[in-house]
Write a structure and sequence with these properties.
Helix content is about 40%, strand content about 20%. By secondary structure, it is an alpha/beta fold. The chain folds into 3 domains: about 250 residues, 3-Layer(aba) Sandwich (Rossmann fold), CATH 3.40.50; about 240 residues, no CATH class; about 80 residues, no CATH class. The protein starts with 19 loop residues before the first strand and ends with a strand. The chain binds S-adenosylmethionine.
Length: about 600
């Protein structure tokens, strides 16, 4: 949709909202690309249907991966999505517009025949020693890299994979040196290096996936690849301690200085070639769908991909954590699988009218007043997730990464003068964003905000921001996003994490104004008449709140009424809602 088409034609409705909604991670919109805290679209649809007519316009100014846009498409409405992060914009765009799946299949086939199968063999042909001691050849599905430590006491080397294999159950943080028996905390050691410790291969002769120790030839091949030069571009944006997630993920212990360091050599060789080839595709929608599959492949192929003995190898979302046992995948296999997931999405996604734009939620000046029927949004949750940091690993392939200075978040790792943000900065920025939501939503519309937090200070910041923006609470619903793994991870880190989210729905009605029982009307008329009598210039105390308050109360009393409900706070809200404010001076709009 072109924003110039946005007009205040209200298709807003206020039907009863659901008390409880639950979603799952199974839908094709869920599996097509990872993003922290995705909201399942099937949980958003009932809110949209209760708040708009078919054809109505829904806004999400913190759209993330664009799940509100998918819900908009599923319910036959129009959507306006925006986010600060270029990576989120890329996902929201690709999640909400279809590409012909036969064109995608055709292009993969062309890639396979012209270069991808041959390059895959070049990088991933491997061999393992099976249980009979025989060498079996095949394409590596994944390679487990183990960190090697020097004992702080005797300097003997310990291989984490060997210790894990010999240990029943989860490995404790403190382990004993195999040589001298001295205990040390493995999580605080700077590793000497990483080594390939275990392989899973698809045997060339057919048969089941085979796990085993890499053969000497396989190790020799992998070390030859370490010496190979990268022939294509790979992002090298700096990641340093100015990023909260650098500190929280202890990346200094993993030798990370740039995005490039988040990838081992073989994935770097594979990804840089793949990205290069994708840029040669002429058909723009197909190229973009490949880029969409690529960014998730890059995330899955980073050093963050955790070995999990129970299967389901993947990085943890919402962090930049590099595990001690990394499961390096076959990049091309991940990519083909991603393209299948993307095609699955495009087979079921209805055609829709959803526009996506990169923008801070604090400035939606590109959306006309009163032109939106319904806002459904899921703002950042205090200091839980630093999207700009977490997206960096895959977003930087698309160009310049997001502006983390403008991110609405609580950032404790930097001092305020270095760009750190306190809870009150978070509240101020949210107030600006919600004020914009209130401005653009039509008078009969609604604003629904998804939120959860374990910190009461963050809750207060959110609710104060809503109130200061002039939104009024109407209803609260409970949402189960079905994301046990993400919350489970945080809980394991010692954080008490609320499982359910709340969907709080507010209205932009001028309720305070109505509660003034007529005093508000008198006050506003008196103040407007007073301001119209002044010169248009600034810097006069006669435009200040205190002065205007006296004018207002004086006129209410003069007219024989009581100033009931006309507290200075309520009066300020009345002025904010109806007049233009420049610092502490008020003006009649349009005068
Ligand atoms: C909780 S997530 C939204 C997830 C989304 N509901 C989904 O389903 O994927 C919050 C989003 O707010 C974005 N964000 C943070 N600060 C912002 C700002 N100033 N303006 C716009 N978006 C911002 C982050 O990039 C992140 O994508």
């Amino acid at each position: 949709m072109d924003n110039s088409e946005l007009r205040p034609v209200s298709l807003a409705r206020r039907r009863t909202l659901p008390e409880y909604v639950a979603g799952s991670k199974g839908g094709p919109w869920y599996t097509s690309h990872t993003y922290p805290t995705k909201v399942p679209p099937e949980t958003i649809v009932p809110f949209i249907e209760a708040s708009t007519e078919v054809g109505g316009t829904v806004l999400d100014p913190f759209c993330g991966s664009g799940m509100t846009g998918v819900a908009v498409a599923l319910s036959g409405r129009s959507g306006v999505l925006s986010d600060l992060s270029p990576g989120a914009v890329h996902l929201a765009r690709n999640h909400t517009r279809r590409v012909a799946t036969d064109a995608i299949a055709h292009a993969v086939d062309r890639f396979d025949r012209s270069w991808m199968r041959a390059f895959e063999r070049d990088l991933y042909l491997s061999s393992v020693i099976d249980e009979n001691g025989d060498r079996v050849e095949g394409l590596a599905r994944h390679t487990v890299w183990s960190e090697i430590y020097a004992c702080p006491k005797c300097r003997a080397e310990s291989n984490l994979w060997a210790i894990t294999e010999a240990h029943a159950g989860p490995l404790p943080r403190r382990i004993d040196c195999e040589a001298c028996g001295a205990p040390f905390d493995r999580t605080h050691q700077r590793p000497l290096r990483s080594e390939p410790a275990n392989l899973a291969i698809k045997p060339s002769g057919g048969g089941k996936l085979l796990h085993g120790k890499p053969s000497a030839a396989a190790i020799e091949r992998i070390s030859a690849l370490q010496r190979r030069r990268l022939r294509h571009w790979i992002p090298d944006h700096t990641i340093d301690p100015s990023r909260e997630m650098y500190i929280r993920s202890a990346l200094h212990l993993r030798g990370v200085r740039t995005v490039k360091d988040m990838f081992d050599k073989r994935p770097a060789l594979a990804l840089s070639r793949l990205w290069h080839e994708i840029q040669t595709i002429d058909d723009a929608p197909v190229r973009e769908s490949f880029e969409f599959a690529f960014t998730n492949t890059a995330w899955h192929s980073s050093r963050m991909r955790r070995y999990n003995a129970k299967g389901g190898q993947r990085p943890l979302t919402g962090t930049l954590f590099i595990p001690q046992l990394v499961s390096e995948p076959n990049v091309f296999e991940v990519f083909r699988n991603q393209l299948r997931q993307v095609s699955r999405l495009y087979e079921v996604l209805p055609d829709s009218d959803v526009s996506v734009r990169q923008s801070s939620a604090t400035d939606l000046s590109w959306i006309p007043d009163g032109s939106i029927d319904y806002v459904f949004t899921d703002p950042p949750f205090g200091n839980n997730i630093h999207y700009a940091d977490c997206n960096l690993v895959w977003e930087s392939w698309l160009g310049e990464p997001g502006d983390n200075d403008a991110e609405i978040v609580v950032n404790k790792s930097r001092s305020v003068h270095q760009g750190g943000k306190t809870v009150s900065d978070y509240q101020r920025l949210l107030t600006e964003a919600f004020t914009e939501c209130r401005r653009v939503v039509c008078p009969t519309g609604r604003v629904s905000i998804v939120f959860h937090n374990s910190d009461d200070a963050v809750w207060s910041a959110l609710l104060d921001a809503v109130e200061n923006a002039g939104l009024h609470q109407a209803e609260v619903s409970i949402m189960d996003k079905g994301q046990r793994s993400q919350k489970g991870y945080k809980a394991r880190q010692g954080e008490l994490v609320p499982f359910y989210d709340l969907v709080m729905t507010f209205t932009p009605d001028r309720q305070r104004f109505e509660r003034l029982n007529g005093a508000g009307n008198i006050a506003l008329d008196a103040v407007t008449a007073h301001l119209n009598r002044l010169d248009s210039g600034r810097n006069t105390t006669k435009r200040n709140l205190d002065y205007l308050y006296s004018v207002a109360v004086g006129e209410v009393i003069r007219s024989g009424q009581r100033p009931t409900g006309l507290s200075l706070r309520a009066f300020e809200q009345l002025c904010n809602d109806n007049l233009e404010r420049v610092d502490n001076e008020f003006f009649v709009p349009g005068a």
